[in-house]
Amino acid sequence: MFKKSLTTLAIAISLTTSAFAEDRQPLDLAKINSVIKTLVDAVIVGDKTILDLVLEFDPQYTDFSKTKFKLNTKATVANTPWTAVGTTAEQTKLDLNLSAAKTRNGKTKSEISGQIMIGIQTDMAALVRYSAKKILEQQPPPEDLKEVRELLEALALIEKIEEVIPLVSKALQITLSELNGKLEEAKESGDQEKIKELTNTIEAVMATKITVKRSRNNEFVSLSIQMPKVIEFSRDGVNIGQSNELKSIKLALADKTGSASFKYKYWLENSTINEGLEEAYKFLKGLETGDEKTKDQMKQIIEFYFSLVKKLLTSEEALLRN
Q1: Which range of residues forms the domain containing residue 52?
Q2: What own/partner pairs with CB < 8 Å and gap ≥ 24 does 227-234 have?
């Protein structure tokens, strides 16, 4: 039941089309958000580590009649594995926004363009150190990737985000070296599809822009990394102009904040979209009208999301105390 309800919500979020909106009464987002809030509050009540959790459709952006949506999620965490325990100043705030819209119609497929945006307020240097150490502990690079290991070891020792700047450049050099090695192998084997894919990816990596912002006193403010080139990640059986693409990636790091943005487009079979719309509408309409079965399915989704956030963002000590 949980898997089905989660799939239904995913369909509702990403596959709503204008044709569907014309056939159905508009959804009352205020009511839907109110029901979701009540369910969220019931799940997190009494928790000492997840202080706040929000899951809602953005009413300022979302308009299913115009085939666009934005889903916002927010979490405030008292303790994380990388920050000091028990201090209000070290609370971590996480924002995750998902948006999508139908941008092109085809005879058999339709194009969905969207964006994933992640924002975090925390001690970013501590987060980078913690992440690097975890990778070294749980997924250490093999012996033939000595440079990758050295890069992670350097990241595990940084004191300020400014120290990441030369390491980002080093990471790009390592990535290009690995990709070029694989390209040579593809050329030797004559795999034209692989050659095209690797060449495209290499061009995207080479187009990556690293920008450092400083104050008038030359003090570090932020670091941004942007990959503006398109990376095609699936071309099997699609027509020209109907490839699935990661259109751009942008990361921004400062001492106390970080953000990531991913823009993409994805082509889906119209038949698949149409088959899922009926269940999607029923699910959201069920939330709007307060249908108990639908609310129970939504609660399971919230509980899963809550456990995921807690696992990712809370410290082992906090979990034990809670």
Answers
A1: 1-122+256-322
A2: 229/203, 229/204, 230/200, 230/204, 231/200, 231/201, 231/204, 232/197, 232/200
